[in-house]
Amino acid sequence: MIFSDLLEETIFSLSSNKSRSALTILGIVIGIASVIAMISVGQGASQGITDRIQSLGTNLLVVMPGSQRQAGNIVRGGMGSSQSLTLEDAEAVTDNITDITAVAPTVSARKQVAVKGQNTNTSIYGIDTNYFGIKNIDMEVGAAITEQQVKSRAKVAVLGPTTRADLFGEGVNPVGQKIRISSQEFSVIGVTAAKGGTGLGSSDDLIYIPLSTAQQYITGNQSVSNINIQVATEEMMAFVQEQVQSLLLTRHRISDATQADFSIMNQADMLSTMSSVTDTLTMLLGAIGGISLIVGGIGIMNMMLTTVTERTREIGLRKSLGADSGDISAQFLAESVALTFIGGVIGIVVGWFASWMVTKFSGTATTVTSGSVMLAFGVSALIGIVFGYYPARRAAKLDPIEALRYQ
Amino acid sequence: MIRCENIVKIYETAGEQAPVLKNINFAIQKGEFVAIIGPSGSGKSTLMHILGALDRPTSGNYFLDGKNVFALSEKEMAAIRCARIGFVFQSFNLLARATVLRNVMLPLIYNSSVAKSERQANAANALRAVDLEEGLWTHLSNQLSGGQMQRVAIARALINNPGIILADEPTGNLDSKTGAVVLDTFRKLNKEDGHTIILITHDKTVAQRADRIIEIRDGEIISDTRN
Fold this sequence. Notes:
The complex is a heterodimer of chains A (407) and B (227).
Chain A: H1 3-15, H2 18-55, E1 60-65, H3 87-96, E2 100-115, E3 118-127, H4 131-134, E4 139-142, H5 147-151, E5 156-159, H6 161-168, E6 178-181, E7 184-192, E8 206-210, H7 211-219, E9 226-231, H8 237-251, E10 262-266, H9 267-310, H10 312-320, H11 325-362, H12 370-397, H13 400-405
Parallel strand pairs in A: 3-8, 5-7
Antiparallel strand pairs in A: 1-9, 1-10, 2-3, 2-6, 2-9, 4-7, 5-8, 6-7
Chain B: E1 2-13, E2 16-28, E3 33-37, H1 44-51, E4 59-64, E5 67-68, H2 74-84, E6 85-88, H3 100-105, H4 119-129, H5 146-158, E7 164-168, H6 176-193, E8 196-201, H7 204-207, E9 212-217, E10 220-226
Parallel strand pairs in B: 3-8, 3-9, 6-7, 7-8
Antiparallel strand pairs in B: 1-2, 1-4, 4-5, 9-10
Helix pairs in contact in B: 4-5, 5-6
C-alpha cells in the first residue's frame, strides 16, 4: 500500500463519520491547547522573574549585614537591625579587591513622607553616585545625586515614579518642590524612569537621597544597609565573592566563616534558585495539561476500538481483497495519528490564542516557545501511535473468515 | 490450475473435534465454470475459504498454479488473494459510503503492480465487463439495487484480472430474476474472457448454470458431474 492511498483511505474513513472524528479531535485539541497554554504561563512567569532579577543590575554581589546563609536557602534574618556593615567596609572593598567595576553602599529605611497634605509610607534609600550605574537606573526628569551633594549632606531627593505619583500625581514634574521626610525638608531634584515591577524590590516606589544625608538624618548612625558590588565579568563572580568574604571577615575579626555577621548574595545564585522554582511551576502546569492530553488519547483509543468493531466486515473484505495484516494495522494507525495530528495543529493554535488571552486579560506574562510547540506536537503524534496501536493490532489480527461472517 | 489433495479440515470446539472436510480431492482446469453444491453444514464454505487462501486445512495440500499455498507465509497468501483470486460474496460487502468506482478500485491499493494512473481505466473496463450503466458509476454503492450491487462486486473481483473468481452464494440475497442476470454475467465472463469461475451454492437451479457440478455432503465429495 502506497502512502497516498493510505492518506486517501484515512481521509475517507474519518470523513465518513465526521461528528465522531470531530469530537475525538476536540479531546486532543483541549489536551494540546492546555499543555501549550499552561507551559506558556509557567515560562512567562520564569521569564518575568529572570528579567526582574537581571534588571536589578548585572553581575551583582550584595553584601548584607547580620545574617547567616544556610546552605541551599536565601532566607535572611534581622536585616536592618544589625549594624555590622560600615562605609569603611565599602571603601576597603573598593581599595583591596580587583576585578570589580563599582561599589555602591546603601542605607535604607521606611519612613512616612509628606507633601502639602499628601503623604505616603515608602523606602528611603541613601545612595552614592555609583548606585544608579550599577542598578541601570535612568532619569525621567531632573538630575541624579551628585558627588558634591553626597559630600555636603545635601537635603535633596530623587523620587521613584510610583512615589512621585503618590505624592504629586501621575506625570507631574515635581522638580523644585519640597517634601518632608522625618521632619526634615528635602527638595526634589529628579524622578527616575520606571523599571516596572511591583512589591518588594521595586525600584519605582522609593526615594533616593545622598548616603551621608541618610546616615545623618534618617538612621542616625554610621552603618550601611548593604553594599552592592558590581563584578567585571560573570566568570569572576565566585572568585570576587570569596575575596570579599575573606576581606570582610578579617576586617570584622571573625575567624569562623559560619559565624560571619554579614552575608553575600550572589545574583547568579538567586537566579538559579528562582528558576528552579519556576521550572517546578512550569512542570506542574504542564502536567495538569498533560492529564487532559491523556484523557484525549483515551478518547482516541475508545473511538478506534469502536471503529474496529463496526468495520469488522470491512476488515474481512479488505483481507480477502489481498490486504495483509500490515496494511490493515497501517490503515487504523494512520487514522489515529491523523486524528491527533489534526488535533495537535488546532490545539497549538488554540493554546497560543489562550495564552495571548491570559496575557491580555490578566496581565500575566506568557511565553509560547518553539520548544513547547514541538513538545506538544511530538506528544500528540506519540499519543496517536500509542493509543492507536492496540486497536490497530486488534484489527490486523482479525481472522478474515470470522470478520466476513460478523454481523 | 487448482488441485486439492487429501484436504482435511477439523475444527475443535470445546475440546471436541468436528471434522468439516474429510479427504477432499479434485482439480479444476483453467477456464472451467464449476459449481460446488451442498446443503448448509456440508463444508462447502470451508472449502471455499481454503480455495480462496483465506484459511489453511488441517492436513492436505492445495496447489494453485503448481504452488503449494499452505507452504506460504501470511503475507504471501495475502498477495495470492490479491493477484489470483476475486471474491464475490452473498452480501456483496461493498463500502456503503463509497462510490461505485471507488469500490471497484479498492483492491488496487493492495496491488502495487498497477500504476495509479491506470486505475480509473481498469475500473471502467471491469464495470463494462459486468454491463453496469456508466451513469451509475459515480453513485454511492448503497443507492444501487441488489443486482447492481452484486455486479459492482463482480467488477471489483475482476479488477486485478485474477483469473479465478470465487463466488459464495452470489444470488443468495437476490430474487430469481436479478439472480439470473448475475449468473448471465458469470457465464459471459467465463465464455468471452476465459475467467475460471467457482460458484458455491446450495441451490440446484443455480448450480445447473455451471458446466461442472461438484456435490459435497458431510465433508466429502459425493459426485462430480459435467453438464
